[in-house]
Amino acid sequence: MPSLIKSIRDDIKCVFDRDPAARTTFEVITTYPGVHAVIFHRLSHGMWKMNLKWLARVLSNIVRWYTGIEIHPGAQIGERFFIDHGTGVVIGETAEIGDDCTLYHGVTLGGTSWEKGKRHPTLKNNVVVGAGAKVLGPIIIGESARIGSNAVVTHDVPEDATVVGVPGRVVEHRKDEKEKQRAATAQKMGFSAYGATQDAPDPVATAINCMLDHIHIMDEKMETMCAALKALGSELDDLQIPELPELEIHTEAENKTEKS
Questions:
Q1: What is the C-alpha to C-alpha distance for residues 66 and 128, in angstroms, rounded to an integer?
Q2: CA pair distance 212, 200, nearest whole angstrom
Q3: Torsions phi, psi of 24, nearest 5?
Q4: Which residues pair with 172 in a beta bridge?
Q5: For residues 111 and 108, what is the distance between their CA atoms, to the nearest angstrom?
């Protein structure tokens, strides 16, 4: 019971970190359907584990009617879970959600099979799923991944990746070395590769990424050629080329901290 109370307190506190509209604890407790759904799910999940499955389903149905959020009592949910707005959220029986995850309205964590057993997604820690997204099947969404609004995801997603579209595709992967290389080259040229990838239409983003790869290879070849010519005794003017600054890849949490 003490651990349940602590989990509920943490669920309420985390709202203030993720919703700037939240003003007071009383307001969150009395007016946030996402918080209501999570609190009652923790109670119904406890009943489910005690084999009081019918009572757990009844409580879950009452909460669905009241909040518009359907969470099967068998779903496993970690600490500091937040459902923003909430209407239309569906979480299946074998879904597993890690700590510090956030879901927006219209999200479905559903199955793609009628077979018994594991058939719903697993969300690792710090995952954010945008409004209207569908995450389907016994797949794994890696830690700190972001699922864009209205995306349909049916395959595993690596950690720190951003997925958009139907079907879902990775458009940004902060731990990918090639992406970091592109960002460094783009910063040297004076624009943001990540901004181009996120904001430009796909053909344009693809073309820009190809150009950045090409420029990076040309830089390496030029440096090699200059070194070879100097070794042969050629006198070359040493042009001062600005060094690439060390890239800093910030998480959303860090960006919020800096702004505040």
A1: 24
A2: 15
A3: -135, 160
A4: 162
A5: 9
Mean pLDDT of the chain: 80
The pair of structure tokens assigned to 32 is 């946030």
Which pLDDT does position 231 carry in this prediction?
A: 80
> Measured between alpha carbons, how far is 67 from 21 in angstroms, rounded to an integer?
19
59 three-state secondary structure: helix
Determine contact, residues 63/42, Cβ cutoff 8 Å: no
Strands 108-110 vs 134-136: parallel, antiparallel or unpaired: parallel
The structure tokens listed for 52 are 């009081």
For residue 92, CA distances in Å to 48, 78, 97, 117, 134 come to 14, 15, 11, 12, 12
118 or 230: which leads in pLDDT: 118
Walk me through the domains of the chain, giving residue ranges and CATH numbers. 2-173 (2.160.10.10), 177-259 (no CATH)
DSSP 241: P
pLDDT level of residue 32 (50, 70, 90 thresholds): very high
What's the whole-model pTM score?
A: 0.63
179 CB-near residues (< 8 Å, 6+ apart): 172, 173, 193, 194
CA distance 228 to 168: 47
Q: What is the pLDDT of residues 140-183, one digit of tens each?
A: 999 988 998 888 999 999 888 888 888 888 886 665 566 666 56
